[in-house]
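Figure 2 data, in text form.
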Amino acid sequence: MKKFKILSRETLINSHFCPIEKHLVELPNGKLSEWFVNISKAAVIVIPILSSGEVLLQKAYKHGSREIITEFCAGMIDEGETPIQAAKRELSEETGYASSQWEKIGEVFANPTGSEMKYHFFLAGNCNQMKSPQQDEAEQIETFLVKSFEKARELLTNPKTITSSATMAALVFAEGSVRKKKI
């Protein structure tokens, strides 16, 4: 397989949350094609687990889907930030919780056909609420506790629960570590 050759790039949208470029590419067969790419770099998904074994989930309004989504804590990695720094910041800002035990459990491309963005997944163990959440003005987030990781899995995989592919990927990565009792 061969990568497409990028002949030109044009910025169509220069937004922090959704920067879009139009690429003129040469396909491996020599033909030219336009490709629209979201150039967001990376985000984190945090699976917060309390020392009691409870799992912290959240409901958040997501305007793209115009739905309230049940998910794990998540957010974009800021310029100059490492994934672990972003995970700690997002957990604090969105939930008010902090963790003394962190484990990176995986990463995936969010949408490799149309974006170079990656999700970095972290388990956060021994979480405690340290302060009130300090969400961005466009965020509407309500946190809630589920009795165990198994109960969180049951909720998130219930066909009636509205969630995201990123949350489901986080769940799959977390299951291995939780089973091994790493956190």
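Caption note: The chain is about 20% helix and 45% strand.
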